[in-house]
Design a protein that fits this description.
By secondary structure, the protein is α+β, with helices and mostly antiparallel strands. The protein is built from five helices and five strands. Strands 1-2-3 form a three-stranded mixed beta sheet. It has a two-stranded antiparallel ribbon with strand order 4-5. Strand 2 and strand 3 form a beta hairpin.
Length: 171
């Protein structure tokens, strides 16, 4: 008996710092910094299959999608609390039995500050970016927000250094 194919469906993995959808056609500041396209699994996938996707792509969460609509999220924390701590078998446990269904999300028009506030308020490190129909457009992590803030601060420091070192009239 040949093993059955995993019940996962994935969008192509994106490299960190490389966003194939990043372009001027994406007006959203969040979609420019988050993982696009997102990694998604079906609720009927096993936790073992979903974990493999997370490990292979070096991510801490995957969106759980059914009929192209977000129905949950599976995170590293869920794996620790809902699988390992209960001593469940990840090869037999379905994602739908381990995922979080009360998912905090943001829309593409949300600001970086709003997304960070949602994460801090609700103690989560990953936010799916969804459209009005619930389709997952990207997965935003706290790391993406930190990286963007560092980029902004570096730009400000560079501007201040250039201003301070400019030798103009009277300087």
């Amino acid at each position: 008996d040949a093993p059955s194919a995993p019940t996962l469906y994935l969008f192509p993995p994106a490299r960190i710092g490389h966003h194939p959808m990043k372009s001027h056609s994406i007006p959203s500041p969040l979609l420019r910094i988050c993982r696009t396209p997102p990694l998604c699994v079906a609720p009927s996938a096993t936790v073992s299959e979903a974990t493999r996707v997370m490990v292979e792509n070096r991510v801490g969460a995957v969106a759980v999608v059914k009929d192209d609509v977000l129905v949950g999220i599976l995170t590293e924390r869920d794996l620790m609390v809902k699988v390992t701590d209960r001593d469940d078998d990840p090869a037999r446990l379905l994602v739908e039995d381990a995922m979080e269904t009360d998912v905090r999300t943001v829309t593409p028009s949300a600001s970086h500050e709003h997304a960070a506030n949602v994460m801090l308020t609700h103690h989560c490190r990953h936010l799916p970016v969804i459209d009005a129909r619930g389709k997952v457009l990207g997965m935003l992590s706290i790391r993406h927000l930190y990286r963007e803030q560092l980029r902004r601060l570096q730009g400000q420091m560079d501007s201040l250094e250039a201003y301070m070192s400019a030798d103009g009239p009277g300087g």
